[in-house]
Structure formats: C-alpha cells, structure tokens
Amino acid sequence: MQDIAVFRDELRSLDGDLFLCHLFTPEHLRADMLTLYSIYADSARIPFIVSEPMLGAIRFQWWREVIDGKHLDTAPVSSFLNTSNLPRDLLHKLIDAREGLFDKEQPSLSDIEHSASEIGLLFMKTALSVLGENTKDDLPEGLLDAAGSGFELLRLSTAYPDEIQDNIIAEAKLQLQKAAGLFNGMSRKQRKTILPAFLIIGLSKKHSQNFDRAKSLLFYQLQLLKMAFTGKL
User: Fold this and answer.
1) CB 208 within 8 A of CB 176
2) For residue 214, what pLDDT is reported?
C-alpha cells in the first residue's frame, strides 16, 4: 500500500478544494473519497494537457485500465482503488462522459452543459456511495443533478473562451444555488449524513460568488469549518 500522505499531496497539487473537502469525510472512509477525488481531478485535466487527440484517448484508456485493476505497481491511485468500495461501473461511466466532451473539437454551450450534468451526477452518486448506499434515499428531487452540474460547470469554465465563459459561470451559479437551497431544506439529521459529499458544493458556491476576486486558502478553510459546524451549505 502506497503512503497515503504521498497520495494526498498529489490531490493537493491537482485540486486544493477537493483536498480540503476530503479531510471532512469520516476517517475510515477518507481513503475512498480521496481516491474518487483524485480520479475526478486527474481525468478532468486530460483535455487541457495533451497536445493531440490520440494522447488524450490513450490517457482515458489508461484510466479505464486502472479502474479495472491494472497498473498496481506504477500509479499510487491504483493500490488505493484496488482496496476501495468505489463502484467501478460509475467510474467507467465518468471516464466515458469526460472523453465524450473531449471528442468534440469545438463544443457548444449546450454540449458543455449536457456533459457537466452527466459527469456531475455520476460524481455525486459515487461520492454518496462512499458514505453508504442508504445516503441516496429520500433526497430532494434534482439535488444531485444540480449539485454535480454546478460543480462541474464551474471547473470547466476556465478552460473555454471568454465569450462563453460568462454563460458557463452564470449557469454554474444557478445550479449551485439551487443545490444549496435543496440541501439546506433537508432535516439536520439528513444533512449530517451526507454533508461530507456536499461540502465541495458549498465551497464551489463561494467560489462562484467571488469568481473575480482572489481569496486566500484560509478564507476557504474557514468557510469549510463553518459549513461543517452548522451543517449547511
């Protein structure tokens, strides 16, 4: 088993928000959430770090092989994934959805929104599976879709030209606000159970509200603590 501290440092370098939020997952489940967040963050950057489509396709295929239990000796994520309870079918669908958007040379706003909805819903379902299958019961209709879509849209927004970036951010704000309203309308007992999976949504809502103003890491740490203590996003 790889040193989890090294694995955490990798996630910290990929996505500081996800790194902070995984720390609020119950300790015995933390490695699985860390693994999910690492897969999510690394696969998200593939379209923007490769120089040609074939290299992107190879990287996406590599992730499919990792999910299937290969590359145990070469990738830290593999050994953690191999001992996790993460649903492999949802992870495969997430990778397929990411590659689907990647295959479009010049995706429209509609393409981006559709992809964000698909990827975001898979991401949220997988995060809830870490906390236990029963966490998916009795959720407000539209909560997972709004939360996942808003989260994914905000992270996609910076990768696209200014002429559509504002529209992506605007839609992300709407979805994140909807998700927060649905989440906060649940009973305190319900919120407590699923809060670790939704902290990243609350944090992203803060990002969307302050998108043009740099905020320090301490600001977001304090926001996370507030959400954790109050149980609201």
Assistant:
1) yes
2) 56
Report domain extents, the chain: 4-230
Alpha helices in the chain (DSSP H): 4-14, 16-22, 30-49, 53-67, 76-82, 88-102, 109-131, 143-157, 162-184, 188-209, 217-230
Dihedral sign for Cα atoms in the order 12, 227, 153, 113: positive
- Per-residue burial over 187-206, b if 16 or more Cβ lie within 10 Å, else e, is eeebbebbbbbbbbbbbbbb
Low-confidence ranges of the chain (pLDDT < 50): 1
Helices 162-184 & 143-157 angle (0-180, nearest 10): 150
pLDDT at 212: 56
The class (CATH top level) of 4-230 is mainly alpha
Q: Write the pLDDT tens digit of every residue in 99-132.
A: 888 777 788 889 889 999 999 999 999 999 999 8
Query: Measured between alpha carbons, how far is 132 from 218 in angstroms, rounded to an integer?
Result: 31
Let me know the angle formed at the C-alpha of 32 by 31 and 34, rounded to the nearest 5 degrees: 65
Sequence-distant (≥ 6) Cβ neighbours of residue 63 within 8 angstroms:
39, 42, 43, 95
User: What's the sign of the alpha-carbon dihedral 100, 101, 104, 109?
Assistant: positive
Decide: 204 and 17 in contact? Cβ < 8 Å: yes
Pair 231, 198: CB distance under 8 Å = no
